[in-house]
């Protein structure tokens, strides 16, 4: 089970890094939203042990915080 959680974490981190590579044409607020969502997803996955609901919730909360900080 631990190896599965590690695989999910590494896959999510790699996906976030690749996704952020496409942020070149984004505004500052859009970048902050994307970064917040990525960081929130990783945080949610870590705190809930890799549960999908925790990851999605973390991404949602992180995206909202990133969006608000970007204003």
Tell me what you see in this structure:
Helices cover 80% and strands 0% of the residues. It is mainly α and 71 residues long. The protein has one domain. Helix 1 runs antiparallel to helix 2 and helix 2 runs antiparallel to helix 3.
Please write out the topology.
Elements: H1 2-20, H2 28-47, H3 52-69
Helix pairs in contact: 1-2, 2-3
The span between the termini is 41 Å
Instruction: Count the domains.
Output: 1
| Largest sheet geometry | none
Which spans of ≥5 residues are poorly predicted at pLDDT below 50?
none
Average the pLDDT over all residues and give the rounded result: 84
Q: DSSP helix count?
A: 3
Which of globular, elongated, flat, extended, rod-shaped describes the shape? flat
What percent of residues are in strands? under 5%
Order of helices and strands: HHH
Helical amount among residues, as a percent range? over 70%
Structural class: mainly alpha
Q: Using only CA atoms, what is the Rg?
A: 12 Å
Beta-strand segment tally: 0
Condensed summary:
The protein has about 70 residues and is mainly α. The chain contains three helices and no strands.
Properties at a glance:
single chain, mainly alpha, 71 residues
